[in-house]
Write a structure and sequence with these properties.
Elements (H helix, E strand, L loop, with lengths): L2 H10 L5 H9 L2 H40 L4 H40 L2 E3 L5 H11 L8 H14 L4 E3 L29 H10 L1 H16 L3
Antiparallel strand pairs: 1-2
Helix pairs in contact: 3-4, 7-8
């Protein structure tokens, strides 16, 4: 069974079998995201280590060529250029690794605070606002991170939903039956687990939210 197949049924508003519901219950979207991030970090670390090994190898070859006097000027010049190019690539790889680690730390802080984009707010806008708020923040300082989160919540109430409450649309939209939080069937705030829960606990509300999501999609929102 594939998550994409179950996802397609949910988007169409089709009923899920007991087996599919059980499958969704065990599906941990965040774990998959974390695994992907860990894989990206591992790849960057491997690149960094590979660059270092190659730099060491070329540096030794350059030193040997200079000491023995056997290397021509062209050979030495080429080795010097190769070393310089690898050092530059290695620096870029380390910067990429540091940026990935920082992005993971910010995402974890937001996740721990149970914050997400409010209904009607695009994920891209939410992420941009978060990145701006955390610019220059020392992610290793827990107190500073918490203060940044608290300030972000206070400064951006219309942008966020905190643990399913707050943000735009939480006061009771007549088109959504007063549902609290972002529409789990909308492309902008899709949440498979929440959608499944609604389909089981409140089928009528789920249908209403699915209809709203379908209209948004048709309107190109």
């Amino acid at each position: 069974m594939k998550i994409k197949e179950v996802l397609a049924k949910v988007l169409k508003g089709e009923a899920l079998t007991d087996e599919e519901k059980q499958f969704v219950g065990k599906y941990d979207e965040q774990a998959i995201i974390d695994t992907a991030a860990a894989s990206a970090r591992k790849k960057a670390e491997q690149e960094r280590d590979g660059f270092k090994a190659k730099v060491d190898e070329l540096t030794k070859a350059l030193d040997d060529a200079k000491k023995s006097g056997a290397g021509s000027e062209d050979t030495i010049a080429k080795l010097q250029k190769d070393v310089a190019d690898l050092l530059k690539a290695n620096k870029e790889s380390q910067e990429k690794l540091a940026a990935q680690a920082r992005a993971d730390a910010i995402r974890k802080a937001v996740g721990d605070a149970k914050m997400s984009a409010a209904k009607g707010i695009s994920a891209a806008l939410f992420d941009s606002a978060v990145d701006a708020a955390f610019k220059g923040v020392d992610m290793s300082n827990a107190e500073v991170v918490k203060a940044t989160i608290d300030k972000f919540k206070a400064d951006n109430p219309a942008l966020i939903t905190v643990d399913g409450h707050g943000g735009v649309g939480t006061q009771g939209d007549p088109n959504t039956g007063g549902y609290q939080g972002p529409n789990p069937f909308s492309k902008k705030s899709f949440n498979l687990t929440e959608g499944i829960k609604l389909m089981g606990s409140n089928p009528e509300l789920a249908k209403s939210l699915q209809a709203e999501a379908a209209k948004e999609s048709a309107d190109g929102k």
